[in-house]
Amino acid sequence: MGFIKSVLIFFYCTQLRYLVIGQTYDEISSLERQLKQFSPDLNPRLNQKDPVDVSIMAYITAILDYNEVSGTLQPVVSYVLTWRDEVRRWNSSEYGNVTSINLPITNTWIPKISIINMVRHKSIFMYHNEMEIRRSLVNYQANGFAEFHVSGAQDITCSSEVKYFPFDSHACSIQLFPEYANGNVILKPETKTFDLRFAVSNTEWSITANSVDGEVVPNVFSIVRFNITLSRNPSFLFLNLVLPIVLLSFANLLVFCIPVASGERGSLAFTILLTFIVFITMVTDILPACKPISYFNIFLEVQLFCSVLIAFCTVWSISLHHRFAENYTQDIFPQFLLQMSCAYRNSCSKQQQKGKKNQVVPPRGLTKEHCNETCVDKNRQLQNEQELHEDIRSDNIYTKDNHQYCLKCIDSICFSLFLIILCIQLSVYGIIFLYKP
Predict the structure, then answer these.
(1) Which string of DSSP letters, residue by residue, matches 71-92?
(2) Which of 12, 76, 210, 224 is the most exposed place for a label (fewest CB within 10 A)?
(3) Which CATH number fits domain 32-233: 2.60.40.10, 1.20.1270.10, 2.70.170.10, 3.40.50.2300?
(4) Where is the signal peptide (predicted)?
């Protein structure tokens, strides 16, 4: 048994020595010179009419930025290209068992691949200096299997879809095609999805879906599309844009709660109106001018329109207040408002009288004289109320109390109307965003 172990150890040592000593500098340099003799401009096929099948796989390492206004996506993507070379292959036993070697891209054949929807540079090979080009290598196996890695930040055109802003999602794609005539190079996807193992998360955007598909037309062209879906992280914009606008919309209704005589009603209405204009300017800088328009933009425009109407109602109520103060109520519209408010007040007072008639009989402890005095007081109160109603029914006599009541009715109607409009809007948009596809 000891003899057999010794033989096995000697055998493995000789093989290891052969592998280490056999792959010498001279043997590898000799192999490199042999492979560099082939022209880098010819296809790696013995028959030049045969197409070269290039498999491609992509890794997304980061999403640097996505600009919705310009429709530009800036991802950092790494591509792995593999193909079979029928020319650059060797017998490893003739070169000291060398099974793989790296060749510079300037001395060997590599597929020229471009991006259809690139903003600036069309090619995926974006080198910034000569050193990067010289150190870019293609790995070859002895059987002719070639592998090449390239990576970089790219500017891709991507159409914006801001219909559900700030809960929006955008579908983007990186479309690759080989720049060779007559379909000499066929580009094929190696996987059906992106590899996101090395992706660094973005604070604003996240990749929620991805897929890879290809299209090949024989002897014409081939295209590979890397599709991703970007979804916005809405927390920041919701807290700093959406929520302030909703709260400001409710605050706008407080204009009708301020007494007209205070003199602060107009200033508050126009301040809130200007604030809405500032928010519209902010949203214009964020959202692109595309179709369909976002629901949030429509909501903001409706709130601006309601704010304008509130400002008009405020100015109108202030004007009525001054007219009533000067007892100038000869116009048709002020007369109509006073009559309507007085009629409503009469109907309310009649209902109160009916309620008083149904009151309980006085307690037992009261004497007859007390009952007579109580009845006399009630009769006097009823006479005073009748005289007041007769004054209200009069077409030419309106007291200060009638004017104030008319203004309060107008404020109540305006407050209720705009509150109902705001609640309906919030309910509709809540349903839209809740059940969005």
Answers:
(1) TEEEEEEEEEEEEE-SSS---G
(2) 12
(3) 2.70.170.10
(4) 1-22
Structure tokens at 43: 């296809």
In the 8-state DSSP scheme, what is residue 332? H
> Residues 422, 250: contact at Cβ < 8 Å?
yes
Residue 287, pLDDT score: 86
Cβ neighbors of 155 (< 8 A, separation 6 or more) are 72, 73, 74, 118, 119, 120
Residue pair 151/70 in contact (Cβ under 8 Å)? The answer is: no
Each domain of the chain, given as residue ranges in start order, spans 32-233, 237-346+379-434
Give the pLDDT of residue 342: 57
Residue 83 has pLDDT above 90, yes or no: yes
Asked if residues 294 and 436 have their Cβ atoms less than 8 Å apart, the reply is: no
Least confident stretch, 97-106, 139-148, 283-292, 360-369: 360-369
Cβ neighbourhood burial of 30 (10 Å; 0-12, 13-18, 19+): middle
What are 302-345's pLDDT values in tens digits? 999 999 999 998 888 887 766 766 665 555 555 555 555 555 55
What are residue 138's DSSP bridge partners? 103, 148
Count of helices and strands (H, E) across the chain? 10, 11
b/e map 56-85, b = 16+ CB within 10 Å:
bbbbbbebeebebeebbbbbbbebbbbbbb
Q: What is the mean pLDDT of residues 258-287?
A: 88
Q: In whole angstroms, what is the distance from residue 64 CA to residue 76 CA?
A: 7
| Average pLDDT of the chain to the nearest whole number | 78
How far apart, in whole angstroms, are the C-alpha atoms of residue 360 and residue 356?
Answer: 9
> pTM for this structure?
0.71
